[in-house]
Amino acid sequence: MSATNGEVSVTDPIVRTVGGWFDALSPAPPDGLRVRLSVLLQPFAHLSVEQVPEACLDAGERLLDALLASGSTSRATALDLLAVDALVTYAFQAAADEPARLDGRAAQALARIAALPGSLGA
Predict the structure, then answer these.
(1) 72 — alpha (psi -120 to 50), left (phi > 0) or beta?
(2) pLDDT score at 97
(3) CB-based burial of residue 102 (10 Å sphere; 0-12 exposed, 13-18 middle, 19+ buried)?
(4) pTM score over 0.85
(5) Among 4, 52, 93, 104, which residue's Cβ finds the most Cβ atoms within 10 Å?
(6) DSSP letter (8 states) at residue 45
(7) Which residues have C-beta within 8 Å of that of residue 32, sequence separation ≥ 6?
């Protein structure tokens, strides 16, 4: 466990993969969100736990890009928007285990997310 945020730490010796990290989250996300996040993180589940921040950002970016591309703004996308928020939050909770890299990660994440509407021709 991370001493700073109560979540599973990427330096926890018991947790070895992104999937294991997600399964060990405490408190766990609410059931509907947990299922959605699990699906979104599945392509990254086998990666080393040190890659949690990047895996969460990648999954969140992919989903947000798909939402923006589809023009979805209805209530039906609420769970997906919540999932994007949760993934970015988890990325930075995990990244807090390496405070020296936090500024660089934040700048990179901001640039990636800000570029998404540009990829749609906006």
Answers:
(1) beta
(2) 82
(3) middle
(4) no
(5) 52
(6) T
(7) 79
